[in-house]
Amino acid sequence: MSTAALPRVTVVAAKHRDAGPLVALQRDAADLAVLCAGSDDKEGRAVLDRALSEAEGRGCRVSHAPRTLTAQQGGGKEELLKEFHELRPQRLLLPDPDPVRSGYDDSAGVPVHDVPPGHAVTALDALAAAREYQHSTGEPVFVDCRRAGAEDGADAATVLRYPHTTHWLAEGFDGRLSAFLPSADGVLRWTQDEPGGRGWQGPEPLAGPHLMPGLSVHRDPHGFVHLLALRRTPRKDGGEDVAVVRAAQYRTGGPLTPWHSLGSPNPGDRYKSREVGFPAAGFDASGSLFVFARNFGHSISVRAQGADGHWAPWQHLRGARVADEIVTVTTARGEVEVYARARDTAAVVRWHRTGGVWTEDRTVPLAPAPGSLAAGPEPGTLLFRDLGTNEPCVWQPGLASALPIGGADGAGPVTGASGVAAEGWTYSALVRSGPGGTCVVGAHAQGRPDTGVWWNDLGARSPRMPAMVHDRTGGVTLATVDAAGRLSLAHRQSPDGAFAFGSWHTA
Question: Which SUPFAM superfamilies match (predicted)?
Fold first, then answer.
């Protein structure tokens, strides 16, 4: 890749030493800039210098020395906005705007954090500036926030405060596909012109005031697409609340419904509500929607909407302390179950309903790598990467152990689709990120992952997870998006022939 074509990535941190781990998140070649809200000592500057030197070894270009936004210049949103107009970032790497507490001061009634408050302030200023920059220029900006307390040197999939969207390509009620991804200023949408066609429109910005940079996409049993996110809103008594919000697309290419607040598992407290985890959701066979999120106490809370549209209040599922990594699966009986990675041990906890009551199961025999849990393409199955080997594995209740399926290269979740016909057999198709963020596909006989998976690297490097859809016609479509917001697609060459794809084309 020529330097002229390098994606433009800007790191914003409180001080130089804090920018080092953020620079390390940029694993691929990029035109890299660093902005610091405050100055640092010699040791802190040395930390950043080492990180930038290592980045140059990965092919990054550092065009100028890190810039410090002094107190006299403001150092806040306005100064960052001015810098963004000069740097024109396509990707931002930021600290955690809502770090999880390390303790709680009962006498003062406030949480205690391991990171200075300036980290969150810097992140919030940068998010506000990025929203304004994208809104005024129309240029998409993708944002990744590094979770406070994350291990240095860990892969991006394991340290993000807001996980990358997985199932972001969805078939609508009319058979056309839509792609949805979070950006600095709300959601970006691409829309297919006609079912099975190669023409697309987008990216189209969809209003999402004050959304945080994460998105969860779900298709209900009727073919309508639902979006879940976190939204920050000011409180009348000062501070801000973070709440789970939902919008829906009932007509492909049409407007979203207004973003409806589902509130917080810990409402009414300006500190506790800010720590809500990123939501996961699932529909059961009746059309009821279940939304889950980690609460302030580090257990799981659920809020359900019945098929009649009525919302029940948030319910706390007492039990194991969990990390901010939750996925749902829908079983062959059409029931929703939820899995969460444990917070303090290398384990997974499962909740399922028995007689309408949520039951905790701590006997799940898995040790997943952080950031790798995903629903499998077959009902009731779970996909993850093994903590020790990084190899993708599949598991479902009743199995004594998980089954490895190869593909230890790459990082992050594995997703896919079932019911794919190929040369007289039915397969489950899989997609994941490979080395350097390429799109890697595979397949195994449906219901028989033990027969083996044949992985094929299709290229199309992307900083986001690739997505896959198996549509009603039998076609399979793959999608990636580059740092500049260009959507690329590849289509299966035959709906029932060999599992092979044509060349990538830009929407």
Answer: Fucose-specific lectin
Q: Which of 92, 127, 156 is the last residue of a domain?
A: 156
Reference 9, options 165, 139, 143, 188; nearest CA is: 143
Please give the helix or strand (H or E) that residue 213 lies within, else none: none
Range of the domain at 499: 370-507
**Of 356, 243, 247, 362, the residue nearest 299 (C-alpha):** 362
pLDDT band at 420 (very low <50, low <70, confident <90, very high): very high
What token pair was written down for 108? 């003062």
| Cα–Cα distance, 255 to 209 (Å, whole number) | 15
The average pLDDT across 123-133 equals 96
User: β-strands 476-481, 467-470: how paired?
Assistant: antiparallel
Query: Residue 267 CB: number of other CB atoms within 10 A?
Result: 13
Angstrom distance (rounded) from CA 419 to CA 378? 9
* Domain finish residue from 107, 124, 156: 156
DSSP state, 386?
Answer: B
List beta partners, residue 353.
358
- Phi, psi for 237 (deg, rounded to 5): -95, 15
User: Which one-letter amino acid corresponds to residue 354?
Assistant: T
